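Re: export button greyed out
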Amino acid sequence: MIKPNLIAGSLLLLAAQAIAITSQFIPKRYIVEIEENHALFARDESPAHIHKRMHNYLEARGLRYETRHEYGSPGVLVGLSLTIKDESDLHKLHSIPGVKAVHPLRMLQIPDPAQASSSIAKREAYAAYDPKNAPFTDTLHAITGVDKLHAKGITGKGIKIGIIDTGVDYNHPALGNGYGEGHKIIGGHDFVGDLEDLTLPLEPDNDPMDCQGHGTHVTGIIGASPGIAPFNLTGVAYDAEISVYKVAGCGRNTDPDATVAALIKADQEGNDVINLSLGGPSGWTGDFQSVVASRIAGKGRIVTISAGNEGLDGAWYASRPGTGEDVISVASVDTPRFPLQVVDVGGDTPHDPIPYFDPLPLTNISDKALPIYAFTNDTMEFGCATLTDAVPNLENHVVVTRTGSCAVSDLMENLSTKGAKIVFLYSGTPLFSSIRQTVGDFPVPVSKIPREAGEWLTKQFFETKEVTITFPKGGRLVNYEQQTGGLVATTSTYGPSFDLRFKPSVGAHGGEVLSTYPLAKGGYIVIPGTSMAAPYLAGCAALYLQVRGNNADIARQARNFFESTSVMVPESHEENSMLQSVTSQGAGLVNAYAAAYTETYVWPGELLLNDTRHFRGTQNFTVKNLGSKEKKYDVTHIPAGTAITIQPGSIQAARGPVNLTDSYAEVELSSASFTLAPHESKIITVKFTPPQGLDNKTLPVYSGFIQVEAQGDGEEEKVHVSYMGVAGSLFDQKVLDDTDDVQKGLNFPAIVIDQQEDGKLIAQKKATTFEFEGNETFPQLGVRLAFGSPQFDIEFVDASVDLNKVIGSKIPVVGSLFNNQTGMPRNILASPNTGFFPFSLNNNVAFRNGTLVPDGTYKILVRALRVTGNRDNLNDWDMWLSPAMTFKFNETARAAFASDSDDKNVDTPGTRSAGSLLL
Ligand SMILES: *[C@@H]1O[C@H](CO)[C@@H](O)[C@H](O)[C@H]1NC(C)=O
Ligand SMILES: *[C@@H]1O[C@H](CO)[C@@H](O)[C@H](O)[C@H]1NC(C)=O
Ligand SMILES: *[C@@H]1O[C@H](CO)[C@@H](O)[C@H](O)[C@H]1NC(C)=O
Ligand SMILES: *[C@@H]1O[C@H](CO)[C@@H](O)[C@H](O)[C@H]1NC(C)=O
Ligand SMILES: *[C@@H]1O[C@H](CO)[C@@H](O)[C@H](O)[C@H]1NC(C)=O
Ligand SMILES: *[C@@H]1O[C@H](CO)[C@@H](O)[C@H](O)[C@H]1NC(C)=O
Ligand SMILES: *[C@@H]1O[C@H](CO)[C@@H](O)[C@H](O)[C@H]1NC(C)=O
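Workaround output, generated via the alternate export path:
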């Protein structure tokens, strides 16, 4: 089969661009799911027995494989995860008696916090530390009502929370300083071991110690005990019993089948709330991990999952497993302020103290006034080039330089040769963020300062003005204000899903959060992302269960309660700002107190209107008075901005922040005002008219809220149901990119045969013969999906096939390369990483069933089914046919390759049916 991984040769640009996309696919690894009620199995056949049968069957057929996990949770998943030695054995997995599906695996990542920090341009002011100022978590808890729950003694006691992440440093004093029965962290499991490379054999054990940091931060947001110096962090549910399931090694990749195993274990060990701060682009509710997470939620666990940090990549990019139908996907809202350290500036020109991105002072630094030494691009590439004798010993200086010319670790190594003792880095962009999470430990203490401060210091240095830096003894903390506080983080991922469900569900604070960090890495850190928002909601869910009752029915109502009571978030702080689209904020920013105590229940929380072709414009919802007194209700329509999700005049998704317009839907209510006695309920019918006058090709996503306001003798209450629809047709949106938007003059799909000096790719234009000697630059097939596709296939067809003459609904296929790929995410169009799928056509090229492609003349057919299309109807597919390609393979080079069986068929995995496939 074709190799969608990197090739040697000159197509470097193509290769580099591909990484983000191909890393989703993991070769040779599959989850085999068994149909539990299959006639082959006895009524009460145990999962263990079924596993044994599966192994016997596979062994009897000579399959070479390793078992990674055995899943035995009836109702959720019974099956095996396997690594097969040879991709061509895939069909044997499909032939296991009673098999329901064979799922390919895609990588899941801990969302990148560096990516999540880009709304920074709007951070400016900082207030001197005032002990009367609320400490960090108190500020957030006052906004979300968690403070009022804590004041009532609601702290998560008796609720069990499972955290699926990179582990936890349970020796942290704020996290109970211990592990096991009787401690805050009562248990957990390590599914992987302390690996960087998850392709190595896993090293599971029962000790989920965190070597990465992320999981410790997440755990602190939920569980940090108050009263612990220096920050007195107060976790949202600090009396909950926490178990931590480690599914990542020391890097950012998580093991996808371990994540499934962890979900099952977290459920089976009785966790009432399960949090996953991880994900990957998808857009599809039916993604396998999403389905497992949703099944567990459906059983009555509250499953909270981060929405993703890809907001800048625009709409239609919802992250799995947060796409799961019954899970709660959590968007990130920027915090109003967070604590940082400052240094004082002395010398010729007065300057305000400069903040550096650490909540704790850098250690082992002199408290004397230190001169600076600055690098620019002319002075040894910001310190990345070899440091010459012109550079003095830097021991008694504060080194100021910029990121970007080399890896920070290399820069630090380099500067340490001059004895540097402290380095301040600034970014060439407005990015001002923490450094620790991404780069780990360095030989020299280093921190980030704002760009303006870095550029100002550099200017002083080169103008030979005297300037000194003094680190206040014992440190000095300030509250750093974010002007974007209370708005959805620009990096929080946009939905909706391609089946027009509501993702994300709700928002919580994630945009720069102070929490615990492994002691070995300093103990505390400020980092951003939806990874930080999801655990905040998990904590709120525990408080909700403690108030309303800890049972499966209450758990299943949780998303409705959280969505209906959340606080609507505006697009900006400008006066008369529109409300942010629900595809970004979900139903609003969490209000934990209201979710736990509101006496008005409205359901369903989401009115899903679908698109113009499948419009469901009349919808009902029910209002119930849960209180003990009569309530009078008023119902009103509050629209949110309509998101223009496809760039006008184009087929490409709009980049973030996605533009909003104030063309709103119109709403007719069956009743706008009524009274309900205690425990009485009423159905309200809402008739929607989509916004008019918009370009339906831009797929405008309109949304908003139907607010129900109760006036009683007690406090007034406001709850809402949220609605969302598309004023266009998803079916009419082109899926397979046939434009030259990526590179002028080169339309995708393309057979890329060369690359110019300036990096431009050259495509095959006419019938061509390729002779494979083994040392030349191979052609690559480049394909982009402008929009998600329910099914995607690449096949070799006979050279005589002509798309204009396809009669009936079948195209004869010679062999498949990459077929039956279901639930494909769209590619991104973000410079400089212009995502597309590359496939190398070289000596190894083989059909999906493992047979090498023989010499001959072929065309390549690429087809992608449109959203809501019928796979049996050729007209519902976007198709492309390559020019004729004659292949002449070098048998010696091939033989050498074939004997190296481990390299053979290195490839995209991923099909549900083996062998070939006809339409
Ligand atoms: C720590 O924070 C809690 C509120 O979360 C507060 O009640 C307590 O007084 C604080 N303790 C200290 C020492 O400031
Ligand atoms: C180097 O800096 C000069 C100004 O100091 C600027 O004009 C030039 O673009 C910079 N070059 C690079 C590669 O950043
Ligand atoms: C919207 O309609 C499509 C096509 O019928 C369907 O597949 C999808 O599930 C619908 N979405 C919702 C939320 O009803
Ligand atoms: C809405 O509720 C009414 C009863 O109040 C019922 O007649 C109608 O069928 C419902 N409509 C939908 C779309 O469920
Ligand atoms: C968003 O709005 C700005 C300002 O009106 C406009 O320049 C830009 O083209 C719009 N972008 C998209 C993707 O619609
Ligand atoms: C989109 O708008 C055009 C022009 O108004 C109209 O002809 C077409 O039917 C619309 N398509 C859909 C799917 O609504
Ligand atoms: C590739 O190998 C062939 C045969 O060994 C040789 O003739 C040819 O020059 C080589 N081409 C390149 C680009 O190295």
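Confidence is low (pLDDT under 50) at residues 1-23, 900-919. The button fix ships in the next patch.
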